[in-house]
Design goal:
elongated; mainly alpha; about 70% helix
Amino acid sequence: MKKALNNLIENKNILITLKIDVNDLFNKMNTQLTRMKNNEEYESINIKINDERLLTICKSKCKELGFRWGEQNAGDDYTIIHRHAVRDRTSIEMERYLSAITKRLKRERKLQLKN
């Protein structure tokens, strides 16, 4: 989280261009960082947008996807918080396995051609 906050601070101008309230975002992230250090429960945050037109588009897209704008329920959704642990990695593991076999076969073939 600290690294993410530092990246956002370094790219503050991009966030401003995106009409994100940077002061509000940095305050919320610092609060979340403190909560993490104190082993407190995760609490989702809302990013304040300073452009009414963009805000309207975001709200409309949320509604279209079946979400409620600004709802503080992401903390209850285990799959969002722990998606790295629960996602299906079968295809990734298979690709790595096939890549390792291919590399090994190429090395063996190279050695055979040398001899």
